[in-house]
Amino acid sequence: MNTVLITGSAGFIGFHLAKKLLENGDQIIGLDNFNDYYDSEIKEDRNKQLEKFENYKLYRGDLTDLDLIKKVFAENRIEKVCNLAAQAGVRYSLTHPHKYIQANIVGFTNLIEETKNAGVKTFVYASSSSVYGENKKVPFSVEDNVDHPISLYAATKKANELIAHSYHHLFGLKCTGLRFFTVYGPWGRPDMAYFLFTKAILNNEPVKVFNHGKMKRDFTYIDDIVSGIECSLEKSYDYEVFNLGNNNTVELEYFIECIENELGRKADKIYLPMQEGDVPATFADIEKSKQLLNFEPKTNIEIGIHNFINWYREYYEIK
């Protein structure tokens, strides 16, 4: 079994990955700063699930704290690193740019530098479908040009890919970047659309539908994402970037309809223009991921939303 450092272990994706690897018998070193970008209570509750495992060890702190990162590597014989910690959110980056530079650039550099210094050979990290910007060619391929980000969040994720390439070229660090496409599911992020829609409908509040509903997203269920990350850690390619998406676009109106069906209630929709930094559609070309990662998403939107709503009702004690 491996000893894996997972940053962002109390986050949505980090929690699910840590839980899966812990169940497999791996030793997991978690690191999270439990910031207040969204309600930190759900982060604490995720972490409580992980604390049940004897093979889990948590460090509370920030990637920008270089002394802490050095301490984590000094106190543990880490074999693989998976960096899922980041300042998330496209819209938030419009008003809080410095948070993205600190977490996604300074923090990322601290981590990859200490990974190299510790002699760890495998470094897997989260990129994002946001790097494709207003790419007109669909589906989005990892071979497409991604030099025109339309949000600072996207720019920092592109920068991560470039920094990782430099570390691979200079020091032989094996780096795999994963461009996630709209991940959803139980224990998800409260700032995400499906979470906000569910809460609003249950509270008889209006749902904000941007771009007048003319949006398409490649919604990807959390279990499928975790499978892709697991394989990336196992394969440990020299340097690769992969799309992890469902390879199937869903219209926003139908997405809302799925939530309505599960809740047995109709949404009161308010149609609004597109927000700055957002894109009308995302769609992942996953042929490379299929070939090199054996990545095969299995969960359709109807099942995924059903699972999320069941979790939501249980977590918030709603009948």
Give a quick precis of the structure.
With 319 residues, the protein is of the alpha/beta class. Helix content is 42%, strand content 17%.
What would you say this structure looks like, in words?
The protein has 319 residues and is an alpha/beta fold. The chain has a single domain (3-184, 219-245, 283-297), classed as NAD(P)-binding Rossmann-like Domain (Rossmann fold, 3-Layer(aba) Sandwich). The protein has helices at 12-23, 40-51, 66-75, 97-117, 152-171, 193-202, 222-235, 252-263, 287-293, 301-315, and strands at residues 3-7, 27-32, 56-60, 80-83, 122-128, 174-180, 183-184, 207-209, 216-217, 220-221, 239-244, 250-251, 269-271. The strands form 4 sheets. Strands 3-2-1-4-5-6-11 form a 7-stranded parallel sheet, sandwiched between helices. The chain has a two-stranded parallel ribbon with strand order 7-10. A two-stranded parallel ribbon has the order 8-13.
CATH class reads Alpha Beta
The class by helix and strand makeup works out as alpha/beta
Q: Spans of 5+ residues with little confidence (pLDDT < 50)?
A: none
Q: Helicity, in percent?
A: 40-55%
Q: What's the average pLDDT? A: 96
Shape: globular
Q: Could you please say which CATH topology applies here? A: Rossmann fold
Strand content: 15-25%
Specify Rg, calculated over alpha carbons.
19 Å
| Widest beta sheet: strand line-up | 3-2-1-4-5-6-11
SSE inventory with pairings:
Layout: E1 3-7, H1 12-23, E2 27-32, H2 40-51, E3 56-60, H3 66-75, E4 80-83, H4 97-117, E5 122-128, H5 152-171, E6 174-180, E7 183-184, H6 193-202, E8 207-209, E9 216-217, E10 220-221, H7 222-235, E11 239-244, E12 250-251, H8 252-263, E13 269-271, H9 287-293, H10 301-315
Parallel strand pairs: 1-2, 1-4, 2-3, 4-5, 5-6, 6-11, 7-10, 8-13
Antiparallel strand pairs: 9-12
Helix pairs in contact: 1-2, 1-7, 3-4, 4-5, 6-8, 8-10
